[in-house]
Write a structure and sequence with these properties.
Elements: H1 4-8, E1 14-15, E2 18-19, E3 30-34, E4 41-46, H2 50-67, H3 72-88, H4 90-101, H5 105-125, E5 133-134, E6 141-149, E7 152-156, H6 164-176, E8 179-183, H7 189-204, E9 212-215, H8 219-227, E10 234-238, H9 241-253, E11 257-261, E12 266-270, H10 276-288, E13 298-304, H11 308-320, H12 340-355, E14 359-362, E15 382-385, E16 401-407, H13 410-418, E17 422-423, E18 425-429, H14 433-439, E19 449-452, E20 464-465, E21 468-469, E22 476-477, E23 486-494
The structure holds 2-aminohexanedioic acid (UN1).
Length: 510
């Protein structure tokens, strides 16, 4: 494979693992970025140490003290140029995302587009960080809410969206006036280095490069340092529920804020009156896309009894035509899982499914595309006929396993759908407006995302992204998610010559 695009992105055979405005000669453990498709090392790097982390924080803090004083639209201008730089490198960045995370090139390019989109959104937002004008109960008083930058933000991201989740946080946070320190997944360090370079090159012109600090290292060394660091008022973390609980606890203990986007277990309900062509396409993209390794991946299909057999047959035949192989090759629909642990996790889930009475309808094993890809982490996308009482269907397995279960009606579908610990994304396919509206009503889906005639994954950046229950409750990306990156100040100004007290209190003479 031609890897010239790595040069374009500034990736060397050996790379430093931390950036504080310049690239630090990190001396920590050596780590290799491994292509999940063939097990080969793409490039190596050295982890940042605790001392490197200190340098990254100090530089970010200093840059923040200057950045916060810039008018927000001027900050937006920098972000506009970061968006342009990402556009120029979209092709190379998309290839790197695909090579390093194993998602297919179309999805790699889509991920970079998501970064560009959020940059554009943030530029507009830089002129819309609106506060409120609140009517005071006292004469000649004005009361307002003013939003101020928060400080240096810690961003922890997962392998499956190695660029976009950082961009959701960083682009908004930059226009809000913050510095950020990014700890990416150890499995996708090169994408983090490349993204940081793109943003830093734009910011460096005026000495603002330390705003996009990067520290690559293991959880016990730098991950812990971040969550326990009082200098970071907000930790935005994406990953497993287990990781999220630790972050929430440690950040909560120091009374910091955390913004969590954790596990999902998305269901698509398909009712008897659904447009099955659309439903099949949405389910296959949702369950097979990114090899089932999105938080929003479709893991459960709740099908009404009138259509379940036809839907099942159509899904099975669609699955059989999924081209599995090199994620960078045209025509591939499913790449590898991220590593052998993920493959083992899937095999374990398949064994449990059988024990619990699930019936494997297609797939159900590893996959060998041959040649050098034989060393990759390939599996077959799998459909299992299941029932809601199975314990396994309430768990998130980060792999392309889809459980299909019968339901009687919309009531039961909503009940079964919500009866899991996670609450990220959900969808219903129906042509009946009553069922659709019911699904998105207060007595419908309990998820952060509830769609009608659209799948569960592939959300646009314009909406707030995140979910309830074990998903962690955070909201990132669009809508008013920017508020998480700012501190709110309530300000009352007395422009009169008296000093009336609120609540009509008389205190002392006069
Ligand atoms: C994730 O899996 O952590 O909605 C994020 C989606 C993408 C983001 C997924 N826009 O599927």
């Amino acid at each position: 494979m031609n890897l010239d695009f790595l040069k374009e992105l500034g990736i060397e055979a050996k790379n430093p693992g931390a950036f504080d405005g310049s690239w630090l000669q990190t001396t920590g453990e050596e780590c290799h970025s491994i292509a999940p498709a063939n097990g080969k090392t793409i490039a190596s790097l050295r982890y940042g140490s605790r001392a490197d982390y200190e340098r990254v924080v100090a530089a970010a803090q200093e840059a923040f003290s200057r950045w916060r004083a810039l008018p927000a639209p001027q900050r937006g201008e920098y972000v506009r140029r970061i968006g342009l730089a990402m556009r120029e490198k979209k092709d190379a960045l998309g290839k790197l995302v695909s090579l390093e995370s194993g998602k297919i090139l179309q999805e790699g390019l889509g991920e970079v587009q998501e970064c560009i989109d959020i940059a554009d959104f943030a530029v507009g937002l830089s002129r819309q960080l609106y506060g409120l004008d609140i009517k005071s109960e006292r004469p000649m008083h004005s009361m307002r809410e003013i939003w101020h930058p928060l400080g240096t933000i810690g961003v922890i991201t997962a392998f499956n969206f190695p660029a976009a989740v950082w961009a959701w946080n960083a682009m908004l946070s930059l226009v809000c006036g913050n510095a950020q320190i990014w700890k990416p997944s150890e499995k996708t360090p090169l994408t983090a280095i490349a993204m940081t370079k793109v943003a830093a090159d734009v910011l460096a012109e005026d000495g603002f490069a330390p705003l996009v600090g990067l520290i690559i290292g293991d959880v016990s060394e730098v991950g812990n340092a971040m969550v326990e660091d009082k200098r970071l008022p907000l930790i935005s973390a994406t990953g497993s529920v287990r990781m999220g609980r630790i972050v929430a606890e440690k950040v909560g203990k120091r009374l910091g804020r955390s913004l969590l986007e954790l596990g999902g277990n998305s269901a698509i309900t398909v009712l008897d009156d659904a447009d099955l062509d659309m439903a099949v396409r949405a389910i296959v993209f949702g369950a097979v896309g990114t090899a089932g390794q999105r938080c929003t991946s479709t893991r459960r299909v709740l099908a009404q009894r009138g259509i379940i057999d036809e839907l099942q047959n159509r899904l099975v035949s669609a699955y059989k035509s999924v081209v599995i192989g090199d994620p960078l090759a045209e025509g591939t629909l499913m790449g590898p899982l991220i590593d052998q642990d993920a493959v083992q996790g899937m095999m374990q889930a398949l064994a449990t499914a059988k024990e619990e009475g699930g019936e494997i309808l297609c797939g159900g094993g590893k996959h060998d595309p041959g040649g050098e890809l034989s060393a990759g982490n390939f599996v077959q996308p799998t459909i299992i006929r299941a029932h809601p009482e199975m314990k396994l269907v309430k768990e998130e397995t980060f792999a392309p396993i889809l459980y299909i279960m019968p339901i009687d009606d919309i009531e039961q579908a909503i009940q079964v759908q919500n009866d899991v610990p996670q609450g990220l994304s959900s969808a219903v396919f129906t042509m009946n407006i009553r069922h659709g509206e019911r699904f998105v009503s207060a007595v419908g889906s309990d998820c952060g995302i509830a769609n009608v005639n659209i799948g569960t994954s592939g959300a646009e950046i314009g909406g707030a992204f995140g979910g309830e229950k074990d998903t962690g409750g955070g909201r990132e990306s669009g809508s008013d998610s920017w508020k998480a990156y700012m501190r709110r100040q309530t300000s009352t100004v007395n422009w009169g010559s008296e000093l009336p007290l609120a609540q009509g209190i008389q205190f002392g003479s006069d």
